[in-house]
Amino acid sequence: MDIEPPSPGQAQEIIPGLRWLRFPLPFPPHDVNVWLLEDGEGWLAIDAGMGNDETRAHWRTALAGAATGNRPLTGLLVTHFHPDHAGLMGWLAADHGLVPMMTRIEWLTARSLWFDTGAEMIDQQVEFARIAGAPADYAAFQRARGALYQRSVTPLPRAFRAIADGDTLTIGGRDWRVLTGQGHAPDMACLFCAEARVLIAADQILPRITPYIGLHAGEPMADPLGAFLATLERFRALPEDTMVLPSHGAPFAPLHRRLDALAAHHADRLAALEEACREPRTTHALLPALFRRPLDHRSLGFGLGETLAHLRRLEAMGRVQRLPDAEGVIAWGRT
Ligand SMILES: [Zn+2]
Q1: Rounded to the nearest whole angstrom, what is the distance from the C-alpha of residue 131 to the centroid of ligand 1?
Q2: By CB distance 3.0 to 4.6 Å, which of 4, 169, 231, 232 could disulfide with 181?
Q3: Band of residue 1 on the pLDDT scale cut at 50, 70, 90
Q4: How many angstroms separate the alpha carbon of residue 220 from the centre of ligand 1?
Q5: How far, in Å, CA of 82 to CA of 71, rounded?
Q6: How far is the CA of 115 from the centre of ligand 1 (A)?
Q7: Residue 206 Cα, ligand 1 centroid: separation in angstroms?
Q8: Residue 99 belongs to a domain
Q9: Where in the sequence is the domain holding 61, given as residue range(s)?
Q10: Nearest-CA neighbor of 199 among 162, 224, 236, 164?
């Protein structure tokens, strides 16, 4: 399958009644996709894009021109709370008089993070990095950077409409089943249309990269990688040749080959990390087992989160254990 990506502000038809918009991002993976589903008089958008002026300008072009055929935005569904997906939810909702659809957990996560900007929140993140073995100067970087979420998310709507796993949404005469995925986000909404054999996969299943699976300070005993792998297993119930519309990268098929590749990728990384724990080391000292290049401060939080997610999976499997020192800094060793 080779579908040309649309330029920003333009749309590419995937199947009749389903169009692809793509907006640039100021960080990797450099683009985010939005899907437009024809729905009666207008369009229902899946995701809103990053909350910045550039994305706003591309939306204005899309809504005024050929991308939408001058038909209005009449619905909005946001797959998960991350800024590149929910960033302009409030702006689009206010401008078009929409009540966005979201799973309740994603909605509440967005609402709570948007207001969680105080010093105590940064203190907790500093402590989370310290016990993972981060270098002392990283704390100063974290404090100087401050809270990030609100910066790329416009003020959120005050009301939403909850969707949940198993719901069926009829959009433009087609039935779309809501499937939620875990691991990358707590309850991300994906949509499957059996008639078209299309899965709108959000960030759950991406074509070339694996979605970020990270442990975070707010839920340090979670097992996001276990949850992500369990979701991959559940998605095996969908037809083998399903076409996947990911939020980053181009549409692809078949679904099952990618499910296999993602599971194999994480199995390799778990094995490499378990091997590196032969000699007990902190999470920070274990980074080279998963990352080829050293991480700068800007990517260190993601690196530690991803390494911890793999360590938590190994811990849950009984393969590694945590060995705290007198200062609470945790080394991980094999059991
Ligand atoms: Zn994303």
Answers
A1: 28
A2: 231
A3: low
A4: 22
A5: 27
A6: 21
A7: 10
A8: yes
A9: 12-116+148-277
A10: 236
